[in-house]
Amino acid sequence: MGSIIINGVRYDTSTAILKLRDAPSLQLGMTAKVNGPTNPDFTEGVATQVESAVDLRGVITSRDLAGGSFVILGTNVITDTSTVWGNISAPSALAPGVAVKVWGLPAGLGVLRATRVEQHSLETPILSGTVQNVAPGRFTIGGLTIDTRAATTEAGALTSGVNVRVRADAQPSSGLLKAKSVEVWYPLSLTNGARRQLGGVVTDYAGANFFRVLGIPVDASSAKVSGGPLSSLGNGVEVDVAGTVSNGILLVTKIKVKKAPGSGGNSDAFQVIGSIGAFKSSSDFKVKGQAVDATQAEFTNGTEANLSNGTKVTITGNRIVNNVLMASRVVFD
User: Fold this and answer.
1) Which of 249, 308, 314, 316 could connect to 331 by a Cys-Cys bridge, CB 3.0–4.6 Å?
2) CATH fold for the domain made of 270-332
3) pTM (2 decimals)?
4) Residue 262 binned pLDDT confidence (cut-offs 50, 70, 90)
5) CATH 2.60.40: does it fit domain 54-187?
6) Is 102 exposed, middle or buried (0-12, 13-18, 19+ CB in 10 A)?
7) Looking at residue 261, what is its pLDDT?
8) Given this model, what pLDDT does residue 137 score?
9) pLDDT at 317 over 70
């Protein structure tokens, strides 16, 4: 891969170990956990390990086409303009009965904000979300009860409020899913002094000095803020946060407000850097294996006529449709 960008941090991945589940390769919009050191301002790092797994896999049971949401395994999946539509021509293609994979961010009880959606043939269920209503041998995620009596469970996974990933061998029946395994969703150590960088959706907001991102307690009262005022924070707002752990709380030195519910995506939501390959036209070429359409892009340091195989470019855009990045800007390097 060479490098990847996650939550605004560019990681050198040339020597990283890749632990990829449920998909053959990393794609734009997938959630991931990266281990490795970063520079002091959290802009660059060197990855020692990159881990990624699908967050939700199942059959759509209902949808709200106007609202851009649908329900799978009792979880309400919300989408916006920065959701990546892999192998899907339009959100309207998602109808009840269609099987999909979803990568996304926990955004509250029973809610997942989709970052990437792919259609696929029916496979065994995967469900991610916040543990609720814990009782002997079971708990709930959203509108689904999870039977854990025959499951292997990771330490700490069966705790109310923890984000988990559940895998099962069979589809749910009568509102009950029999789990094969329950694991903590991208577990994160909160050792004192550890530097951490997270991208996620704000929950449990009680002020700038206390809220949660991906279930992690955050204090951003002294942080350097970009993307909007600190007063714009609230439940459902998507943010990137970075700082140091102290007594189980992430004391944030840097926070970027990315978007509030219903506000859509950023113009630079996706970025690919590399040499052009498989060039056919400005609407059909690839950079690092990512299909690109640059017919509506602005060009810097060159023009559309300079697009050709081997030319190094930086592509940015805010939409991916049917696995094609719709470029808003092309910079010739």
Assistant:
1) 314
2) OB fold (Dihydrolipoamide Acetyltransferase, E2P) (2.40.50)
3) 0.88
4) low
5) no
6) buried
7) 64
8) 97
9) yes
Residue 126 is which amino acid?
Answer: I
- Return the number of other C-beta atoms located less than 10 Å from residue 150's C-beta: 10
Distances (CA, A) of 94 to 27, 116, 191: 20, 13, 42
Tokens of 134: 């814990």
Conformation bin of residue 210: beta by default, left when phi > 0, alpha when psi is -120 to 50:
beta
Residues paired with 132 in a beta bridge: 140
**First vs last Cα of the chain: how many Å apart?**
19
Q: Is residue 32 within 8 Å of 51, Cβ to Cβ?
A: yes
Cβ–Cβ < 8 Å for 209, 113: no
Report domain extents, the chain. 3-52, 54-187, 195-259, 270-332
pLDDT-wise least confident of 262-266, 279-283, 307-311? 262-266
Q: Is the pLDDT of residue 260 over 70?
A: no
Q: What is the mean pLDDT of residues 44-72?
A: 95
* Closest of 110, 126, 135 to residue 179, by C-alpha: 126
